[in-house]
Amino acid sequence: MSFYVCATILTELLMVAMVLHVTTYNGFNREQKIWFLLTFISIMICAGAEFTVHCGYYNPDHSLLLTVITVFQFSLAPILAVFFSGALGLYRQAKMAIVLLPISFFVEIVCAPGGLIFFFDAEGYHRGHLFLIYELFYSVSILYLIISLFKVGRNFYHRDFITIIMIIVILAAGVVPMTFFKINITYSAIGLIASLCYIYYNDLVQQDTKDELVLQQQKVTDIQEHTISGLANLIESRDMETGEHVARTSEYVKTLAELARDDGVYEDIIDDHFIALIYTLAPLHDVGKIVVSDAILKKPGRLTAEEYEEMKQHASSGGRVVRQILSGVTDEEYIKIAADIATYHHEKWNGEGYPEGRKGEDIPLSARIMAIADVFDALISERCYKKPMPVEQAFQIIRTDAGSHFDPKLAGVFLNHKEEFV
Question: What is the pLDDT of residues 374-388, one digit of tens each?
């Protein structure tokens, strides 16, 4: 009896804990919470009612009260499976099956006065000669619960299927002792599987929610990348270029950043996330050229001083354009790196660049990486105003301008791995 007392107390405490968790948890909607609360509270009621009858402290004077308690328990117990199905997301099915509750109550109330299903006498509780009716309700309930579990498993593509099997095993471990040996641990088992179902269902829902968020984020990322690529190609076409410059400089930027990290250069800043961002955003480095006239962009010869000053405006305009395009579409980190690349990739390490004359590490790292990639590709590529420069000559210019135009650490990495850029 002491085991039964302990098992009942633990069951009640577990259900109280689950009720408190459901009421304070924000991961479920209102309908899900109601079904879980109905499940846990009903188990508490049934376990308490059964304990009241079978605790071993029987008084014949209380037989009427015990009869009422048992009618309530016997009516509610077969409906636990319906509450379970609702809690596991089978709302329509559960709403249809809930009609069994008044039927169960009606049968128990009709049979109680004649002691057909159960009765109390001077010695205590006894099963009636029609106890089979309750067993039939209970068997249908168990079958309904098992079918519901497999249906939920199918809805979640049979993930964590072993959990469903273990729930059925635990259920059997609670029902068999009661059925054949009259050991009352059924509600302890049901309370345990209700808690497991709660954890199981919540875990699957959270997994699906997370997967859906990842999918939506990927869609947003794809849209951003296509927008950036399309805009960059539009700018390059105005500049008598093709998308090849965008593609090449993006690869150079990515490769240089990876090599710098591998060589221990700025490894406190350069990580996978940083590399992914600058690779994605590098195509926007010349987006500010949208404000420059075609006459200057497509001029076949050298620019005049006035024309060059107008061309330089594309740097400061680039950051502004980026913020106008991306503001409200993505996060601030994304916007900042895009704006830094567009604004500062013409700054020089010695402070003689434009648009702000920034110097040294005051120039954002993303822009310093972009500067090397952009200049190198410009040197070795044919433009409307020049022929392509031999690769070795371009490397020599990078070497000569390290510490004046370019970040000397990044230039060193670039030159130490020339084969990666040829």
Answer: 999 999 987 766 788
pTM: 0.57
Q: What share of the chain is helix, strand, coil (3-state, %, to 5)?
A: 75, 0, 25
Among 73, 78, 89, CA closest to 36: 89
Give me the domain span that covers residue 57. Answer: 2-211
Number of separate domains in the chain? 2
Each residue of 29-60: pLDDT tens digit?
A: 888 899 999 999 999 999 999 998 887 788 88
Mapped onto helix, strand or coil, the DSSP state of residue 288 is helix
Same domain assignment for residues 43 and 142: yes
Give the burial string for 30-62 (b: 16+ CB within 10 Å, else e). eebbebbbbbbbbbbbbbbbbbbbbeeebeeee
Q: For 202-214, what is each residue's pLDDT tens digit?
A: 777 777 778 788 8
Of 168, 193, 211, the last residue of a domain is 211
Query: How many angstroms separate the Cα of 198 from the Cα of each of 15, 16, 18?
Result: 11, 14, 9
